[in-house]
Amino acid sequence: MAHDHMIELLDLDAEVLSDYFREVIGWVGREAVDRPRIVDLGAGSGTASLALARQLPGATVTAVDMSPEMLAHLRGRAAAAGLGDRIQTVEADLDQPWPDFGPTDVIWAAASMHHLAHPATALASAYGALRPGGLLVIAELKSFPRYLAGTAGEDVELRGHAAAAERRHEAGMHMHENWGDRATRAGFASVIERHFDIDLRPPLPAAATRYAQLSLARMRHGLTDRLSEADLAALDAIVAGLADRDDLGVRTERTVWLARR
Ligand SMILES: C[S@@+](CC[C@H](N)C(=O)[O-])C[C@H]1O[C@@H](n2cnc3c(N)ncnc32)[C@H](O)[C@@H]1O
Predict the structure, then answer these.
(1) Ligand 1 neighbourhood includes 93 CB (under 6 angstroms)
(2) Domain that holds residue 62
(3) At residue 2, does pLDDT exceed 70?
(4) For labeling, which of 172, 177, 231, 245 is most exposed (least CB within 10 Å)?
(5) Distance, CA 207 to ligand 1 centroid (Å)?
(6) What pLDDT, in 10s, does the model give residues 40-53?
């Protein structure tokens, strides 16, 4: 998938799942110090960096990513939202020794820890980067969004998810880690784990339809060598017809761990 489609997909994540983000950030805000200094690891298009800066008064955010395209997009969004003075970006590969981010009250890592090659090393770096009492927040996808539940396309969507999960596993991604146990082993004192079952029912706003289009097209193109011709053709037909449908939902599960240094 082209990079700009990935950016659009991440931006839509913020819009479609805004209630979930509001709830998690509200929780973090209650646990964190006032005007927290936040580092957003693998910040991507800035979904959380912007939401954190908007929702937590006086928060400052250092958005870290290895992708200069993501960071350029993020800076543009921050400036457009009038948050340019509270959000800065740092380009860094988090699989290498981390740069010094300065005093840090909260480290936020959403859908990024699973990309890192060595989870234990990353958690040790997070521990070292936080001030005592600081918070590490890890949010991960327990299941990727499904749009076709209860419709004729449900089965092919499920087969697509199974094949994509297999591909991620083979690529060595750390999708189903117990980040709470890992944080404890890294020295974090208290760890709280919460599950979020997101189940948005039809009719959905236009942004959700676009979200489904990008997400299912991305799934289909990543699985050319893994799904049958019939399933690929079925996914093509589903993607082509999404704009005219009013029966799409969004179902996804997220797990969030909040650990205190
Ligand atoms: C799935 S996106 C999540 C983006 C964002 N946190 C969100 O929730 O929308 C993962 C991000 O992690 C970044 N990433 C992956 N590996 C990385 C690494 N080794 N160092 C820095 N960033 C990395 C990618 O460039 C991408 O922007």
Answers:
(1) yes
(2) 3-153+173-204+249-260
(3) no
(4) 172
(5) 22
(6) 999 999 999 999 99
